[in-house]
Each structure stands twice: as structure tokens, then as C-alpha cells.
Amino acid sequence: MKVGVLTSSRADFGIYSSLLKRIQEDSFFDLEIIAFGTHLSKFHGYTVEQIVEARFPKIYKIASLLTNDDEHSISTAYGLTALKFSDFWADHMYDWVLCLGDRFEMAAAVQAGIPYDVNFAHLHGGETTLGAIDNIYRHQITLAAKLHFPATQLFAERIIDITGNKKGINVVGSLSIDEIGNLNIPDEDEFRNRYNIQGDFILITFHPETVSPERNRANAKEMYKALKMLSKNMKLVITMPNADTYGTIFRANLLQLKNEEADQVILIETFGKLNYFAAMRYCTFLLGNTSSGIIEAASFGKYVINVGDRQKGRAQSGNVVNTSFDAKEINHAALSLLPKGRFAGVNIYYRPGTARAILESLKNFNNEEL
């Protein structure tokens, strides 16, 4: 069975990792990686090198992003991605093409495949993030897919509402935390020495709220003020924003913070999955508006301060504390979490054997059933 895997960013490639390993080890599959989006952007760390280092037998590279991140540039990049994938799908055929999540580049690649009747299998469909335009892109991908791997039953029911079809839906849990106990996560000394991190630290990731770009300047300023206050007492380890509309506004504020609080702030362009999980394991708590705080942090026993509306509507475990983009409110929430220690509850996104369940579905699904 020939399987293509669409990966457009450091985030989805990390999530895919356990599944890709199983596909490689199974002679039933012929695997090809299709890398595009921020993977090919030197501004975002040129993370395609991580894919090359993993020595996959076949890797395609499709560059389509623009340097700017205003609305016009994002829209143009969407169109350019669709154009390039129109040529790609004309020349390449697969039994299944895996696609994940909700990035605009991912949506463009998938939309270009609809006239070619590409068999898309979508991971993490059915979720809701009302504060990000990705919510629209995610549902677009869901409509184009023939096979669905949602993380929870709630998301499966939403897919049924969107597509009007109950077939081809397999609830498998979140792939990002599959086999988490078997991952070769660096030990604490190795991790801290690699990134020169000393003492207690907060793990931070902020992205713009792309549904309301006019609010991004005010949000980024409140983020800066909150982090400035927190840096007086804690180390801040900050992963940089993805390529979203007006993400450079957040970058500029983070660079200013680093310049002013050099000893307390560490900026990381990209950790990679294992080092990011190490950061999550050894941090005091998480802060920001990234999906990893919602989906993954509970499995590491970590509390999360989820800021603003970007993740609004996404199902949450009991470890999440929600705040608005208000510096004082964020600081108050952070101070309230310090004495709590570890989160001991369950992660609603976890199911054992996620990658195995996906592979079995790919092998056994009969496309004629739809």
C-alpha cells in the first residue's frame, strides 16, 4: 500500500513521529513524505532538515510560503500552495494520503487534491478553535477526507455533523501522546545543559488569534507585559510562533523581551518533539495559547494557563486554567499555580495504541463502503 504523508510544520511532523516509525517498519506500506509549509522556511528554522535526518526513503519538498504574514500574504501563499499541489497530485498517486490538523497550508494542499479524488485520511478532525481561522481550514479538510481519526467521541460526532456521514470514522485518541512512555525523552541534566536552562522555568508558546487580526497588537503587548512581570521571579523558556497571520507582531515583542531580560528569557525557534516533551516534563507549568497545552500537557502532569480565544471551544482536561489577554490576570493565574505542584487527573485525549489503530484502519478500510 502506497501512503503519502503531508507535513507542513514542525508541529505536525512531531505528532506523526510514532505513526511514521510504525509505517516504516511494516513491509505492507510504501511510505513517501511530502514536506512543505514552514518546513522549507529558513525564517522558521528550516525544519525539513529534521525529516532528512530521519532518513525516510522518499521525501518531496514543495516550497510555497511568503516572507510576510499579513492577510494578503497568507491568502497568496494559500493560492500558491494549491497551485503547486495541483501539479503534484497530477503526477503522484497514493492509496492513502495522511493529513493532520488545521494549518492553512495543509488545507490548500488538500483542496487541490479534491478534483483528483485523492484518498485523504484526516487526523485531529472535528475539533473546535473559535479564536483561530484554522477552525475553518480544519473543517475544510474534514469535508475532503474519506477516512477520519478524531481524538475523542465528541469530535467524531462533530465530524458526522459536518459530513453527514457516519462511515470511515475511527476514534483513536491523540497521536502526539501515543506510546509516550516509550519515547526516548532526554533526561533532565542533558536537556538543561543543551539549552543552558537553570532553575525553575515556565514553558511558553504564544500565537496570534487569526480570527481577529486587529486585536493582535494589543494581545502581543499584554503578553509582553505579563512575561515581563513573570521574568522577575521565574525563567521563561519560549518557543517562537508559527507562520500565522501577524505572527511577526508576537515575535517582535518576544525579541524585545529577550533584549531587556536576557538572563531570564530563552527563545527557542524549534525544539523538535523529544526536546519539547522534555521541556514540558521539566517545566513548572505551561503558559500561552497553543494546542499542546490543551492536548499533551496533562499527560506530563502539568497545569496550563490558556490565554485568550485561540483554543476556545476545544475540549479541555482538568489541568487548564483559562484567562483573557490581560497581563494582571495572567500574572495572578501564574502565581496561583505555583503551589499546586503536579496535575494528577486524566488526559481526555489519551487512548492506548493510537498509531496501531490508525494502521489497522488503513489496511482494512474498504473505500467502496462510503
TrEMBL record:
MF terms in GO: hydrolase activity, hydrolyzing O-glycosyl compounds
Q: Which SUPFAM superfamilies match?
A: UDP-Glycosyltransferase/glycogen phosphorylase
InterPro entries in the record, alphabetically? UDP-GlcNAc_Epase, UDP_GlcNAc_Epimerase_2_dom, WecB-like
Superkingdom = Bacteria
Q: Give a GO biological-process term.
A: UDP-N-acetylglucosamine metabolic process
Residues forming the UDP-N-acetylglucosamine 2-epimerase domain are: 21-363
Name the NCBIfam families on file: NeuC_NnaA
Q: Which PANTHER family has this protein been placed in?
A: UDP-N-ACETYLGLUCOSAMINE 2-EPIMERASE (PTHR43174)
Please identify the protein, giving its name as recorded: GDP/UDP-N,N'-diacetylbacillosamine 2-epimerase (Hydrolysing)
